[in-house]
Amino acid sequence: MGRSSKRFRIPVGGTKLAGRDLLTVDDLSAKEIKAVFSLAGEIKNRPGRYRRALQGKMLALLFEKPSLRTRTTFTVGVSQLGGDSLTLTPADINLGKRESVFDVAKNLERMVDAIMIRTFAHETCTSLAAHASIPVINGLTDFEHPCQALTDFFTIVECGRKLRRAKLSYIGDGNNVAHSLMLSAGKLGATLVVATPEAYRPGDVVLERARRLAEESGGTVLWTADPLEAARDADVVYTDTWASMGQEAEAEARRAVFAPYQVNEALFSHAQPDALFMHCLPAHRGEEVTDAVIDAPNSVVFQQAENRLHVQKALMFLLLR
After folding, report:
1. Per-residue pLDDT tens over the stretch 164-208
2. Pairing of the two strands 220-224 and 84-88
3. Are residues 231 and 120 in the same domain?
4. Is the pLDDT of residue 250 over 70?
């Protein structure tokens, strides 16, 4: 397939991501994450400079879960960089059933330059990457959502918050987004307090890894069952839906358990007066967050959503150039 022109090389601290996979935040070093942020900001502010950066490149988009932001930002993003994309749904592939993950990987590596997959089982994503000789990007699995977390920290920095000074709080379900936020905080030396019910706490393996990373970087990653402890003096308050895709049957039971974790005006009042509110969307208004919080002036949820485009463009540039 086509190659990017050398004239698009920019100073990103000698970062070399070309040909690599992005399956987890842990695939990137702190230096590489900062390089992604630098490039994302450059692309956001000077988009015309990159309109042919990935000319001749083709990205396959594999969806086993429905999507608004992931599909739109990857499709629009690669197009704005001069490349093209092909969307494949379960009706086209039925991954692992109609065709094995191995066979899909071996077919696509001969036809496209990279694969983005949005799926349920993280093993599907890692298996695809193991068998494909081209970059594979995790667009979401039940275990991690690296593109989202990278976008979130980029947005926090863009809003003028200093990661090593700010307190970030995540309140809700210890899900894939929480996992990626924890690893990102550990890498970047940030302070993150995650508040979830005991039965829905983040995975122990991820929590331990994030804590080790934080010890190395000078950050802090903590878990608590107390939402007030997380919200108190927070500079950023973040939440997510209580029942993710595939958990619809649990929605009613989860609503009862998570009710004390709703980010409402009372809980948010314990954060700093200028605290940001963040949500990866889609939001279930009146459940995990109230209208008064998500529509407040300090809410940056739509800035987050837009920044998925810019951060993913930076990732595609670095992986495919």
Report:
1. 999 999 999 999 999 999 999 999 999 999 999 999 999 999 999
2. unpaired
3. no
4. yes
CB 303 within 8 A of CB 160: no
Please give the residue range of the domain that contains residue 276. Answer: 160-299
Are residues 88 and 60 in contact, defined by beta-carbon separation less than 8 angstroms? yes
* Residues classed as catalytic: 118, 145, 148, 240, 280, 308
149 assigned to some structural domain: no
| Nearest in space to 315 (alpha carbons), one of 55, 132, 116 | 116
As given in the structure block, the two tokens for residue 67 are 């999507």
Q: How far apart are CA 118 and CA 176, in angstroms?
A: 12
* b/e code 148-187 from CB counts within 10 Å (16+ = b): bbbbbbbbbbbbebebeebbbbbbbbbbbbbbbbbbbbbb
Q: Inform me whether the pLDDT recorded for 10 exceeds 80.
A: no
Whether 8 shows a pLDDT value over 80: the answer reads no
User: Tokens 């298996």, residue?
Assistant: 127
Same domain, 270 and 316: no
